[in-house]
């Protein structure tokens, strides 16, 4: 489990702090991203556990997050904090609008689409309102 002291929240394994643990851990307050056994409140990004890929914001799974996230494998679409490999449509970030197919940007697609009542012209995954 997790336990707190004056230095932070720690991953406990067999009664001692597990300084080797990096990953997600659960307590009564939610799911947390741990680095070297301690909650990493500075981490924002994608994390995988046995239940899937999750969007973590400031060290905690953000179950309210719907949008895009990047990892070493590309850009992905999240719905309520969970990677959504069924999503086909348009997602947006600070770089613009993007066409997603099966949860990832379709960089290999150029053409036209309709999504959410809006038509888009797509060039290599980048979507522009028509």
List keywords for this structure.
single chain, 18 strands, 130 residues, mainly beta, 0% helix
Report on this structure.
The chain has 130 residues and is mainly β. Helix content is 0%, strand content 61%. It has strands at 2-5, 8-13, 16-17, 23-27, 30-35, 38-39, 45-49, 52-57, 60-61, 67-71, 74-79, 82-83, 89-93, 96-101, 104-105, 111-115, 118-123, 126-129. The strands form 5 sheets. Strands 13, 14, 15, 16, 17 and 18 form a 6-stranded antiparallel sheet that branches. The chain has no helices and 18 strands. The N and C termini lie far apart (52 Å).
Helix/strand layout:
Blueprint: E1 2-5, E2 8-13, E3 16-17, E4 23-27, E5 30-35, E6 38-39, E7 45-49, E8 52-57, E9 60-61, E10 67-71, E11 74-79, E12 82-83, E13 89-93, E14 96-101, E15 104-105, E16 111-115, E17 118-123, E18 126-129
Short structural description:
The chain has 130 residues and is mainly beta.
Q: State which percent range the strand residues make up.
A: over 45%
Structural class: mainly beta
Distance between the first and last residues' Cα: 52 Å
Specify the helix fraction band.
Answer: under 10%
Shape: elongated
Number of strands: 18
H-E order:
EEEEEEEEEEEEEEEEEE
| Sheet having the most strands | 6 strands, antiparallel
Output mean pLDDT: 97
Number of helices: 0
- Which value, in Å, is the CA radius of gyration? 18 Å
